[in-house]
TrEMBL record:
<feature type="domain" description="GFO/IDH/MocA-like oxidoreductase">
    <location>
        <begin position="144"/>
        <end position="259"/>
    </location>
</feature>
<feature type="domain" description="Gfo/Idh/MocA-like oxidoreductase N-terminal">
    <location>
        <begin position="6"/>
        <end position="125"/>
    </location>
</feature>
<comment type="similarity">
    <text>Belongs to the Gfo/Idh/MocA family.</text>
</comment>
<dbReference type="Pfam" id="PF01408">
    <property type="entry name" value="GFO_IDH_MocA"/>
</dbReference>
<protein>
    <submittedName>
        <fullName>Uncharacterized oxidoreductase At4g09670</fullName>
    </submittedName>
</protein>
<dbReference type="InterPro" id="IPR036291">
    <property type="entry name" value="NAD(P)-bd_dom_sf"/>
</dbReference>
<dbReference type="InterPro" id="IPR055170">
    <property type="entry name" value="GFO_IDH_MocA-like_dom"/>
</dbReference>
<dbReference type="InterPro" id="IPR000683">
    <property type="entry name" value="Gfo/Idh/MocA-like_OxRdtase_N"/>
</dbReference>
<dbReference type="Pfam" id="PF22725">
    <property type="entry name" value="GFO_IDH_MocA_C3"/>
</dbReference>
<dbReference type="GO" id="GO:0000166">
    <property type="term" value="F:nucleotide binding"/>
</dbReference>
Length: 360
């Protein structure tokens, strides 16, 4: 397929759409074709402020983007409560779908989205950007190395940031009618995905929410945590919050090695990212220091992770359009597993922190 052959429409002018609009501009095989908002004025303002190409169309409704015959795919950063309605409609209109996370309010809703995509032969991918950074593949190489890392025994993930008073009162992520999953759905999604990534997407047997979640007056989670248990003895924990300093950590511990990364969701720097590994760690003779020190690994990139995500999504869409390929099932499969665990954490909180068994 020729460069810039996939034409994307954007549904709504959410703040994250600014970042993804830039990513679409940077990706070599896709272009912004249209944006839709609830008002034409807002769509026009967004397009102007974010440097859309002159050819980009602006619409005063989401339906207009989906009805545009030249739109191949849509990026959907709508509030989670609107996903099932608009994602299923997009699929019925034969628009391939790049869907913001969390993908739905629960797995039952997401199954409706998957069914619509399957029935209409469209590609579905969630917008978990760090999955597309080359560092992620390099870290997986270490976790898969039986000599350097061994067998995974435990993994911990943290994603927190401190929302200001305006955020905690007004952001859609604290509103039960818009994003009812709160911090669990927003930052907790990344934590859960990282735990599943570390265990090759093997679902845990049980999930147990940690006591002491912070919940606002509207019933939306502002901070929470959970433990996950597997039948073979692997364990994992995570903590997510809108109330603590910005932190994005993964620690994975194996029988022979340890992986640390401190910026897994958004790297400290756009053009390079690092992680550290340790193998067969020991103390020195007098136990005054470590005899074997961790190694630092730096991965540089030519495109930021969000542009790599868009490029991969467009590649899959182009393959379906140009080569009659089938949609790639792996992406909706791992989205569904992430949603299943998220649902189990929520259920455990609601059941008084009892263990909840995962049933796929």
């Amino acid at each position: 397929m020729a460069e810039a052959s996939i034409r994307i429409g954007i549904l709504c002018c959410a703040e994250i759409a600014r970042k993804v609009s830039r990513a679409i501009t940077l990706a070599p095989n896709v272009t912004i074709h249209a944006i839709g908002s609830r008002s034409i004025e807002k769509a026009q303002k967004f397009a102007k402020e974010n440097g859309f190409p002159p050819s980009a169309k602006t619409y005063g409704s989401y339906e207009a983007v989906l009805d545009d015959p030249e739109v191949d795919a849509v990026y959907m950063p709508l509030p989670t409560s609107l996903h099932v309605r608009w994602a299923t409609l997009a699929a019925e209109k034969k628009k391939h779908l790049l869907l913001e996370k969390p993908v739905a309010l629960n797995v039952k809703e997401f199954d409706r989205i998957i069914e619509a995509c399957d029935s209409n032969g469209v590609q579905l991918m969630d917008a978990t950007m760090w999955m597309h950074h080359p560092r992620t593949a390099k870290m997986k190489e270490f976790l898969s190395d039986s000599q350097r890392f061994g067998q995974l025994r435990s993994v911990n993930s943290v994603f927190t940031f401190g929302g200001d008073l305006g955020f905690l009162k007004n952001d859609i992520r604290v509103k039960p009618d818009l994003d009812a999953l709160g911090a669990l759905g927003d930052v907790g999604w990344y934590c859960i995905r990282s735990l599943l990534w570390a265990v090759d997407y093997e679902l845990p047997k049980t999930v147990t929410a940690l006591r002491g979640p912070v919940i606002n007056e509207a019933g939306v989670v502002l901070a929470c945590g959970s433990s996950l248990q597997w039948e073979d003895g692997k364990v994992a924990t995570f903590h997510c919050s809108f109330l603590s300093n910005l932190t994005m950590d993964i620690t994975a511990i194996g029988t022979k090695g340890t992986l640390h990364v401190h910026d897994f969701v958004i790297p400290f720097e756009e053009k390079s990212a690092s992680f550290s590994t340790a193998t067969n760690s020991t103390f020195d003779e007098l136990v005054t220091g470590w005899a074997t020190l961790p190694s630092e690994h730096v991965v540089t990139v030519d495109l930021p992770q969000e542009a790599r995500m868009v490029r991969e999504f467009a590649r899959l869409v182009a393959s379906i359009k140009g080569s009659n390929s089938k949609p790639e099932k792996w992406w909706p499969t791992i989205s569904r597993k992430t949603q299943l665990v998220l649902d189990a954490v929520k259920a455990s909180i609601e059941k008084g922190f009892e263990p909840v068994e995962i049933v796929s």
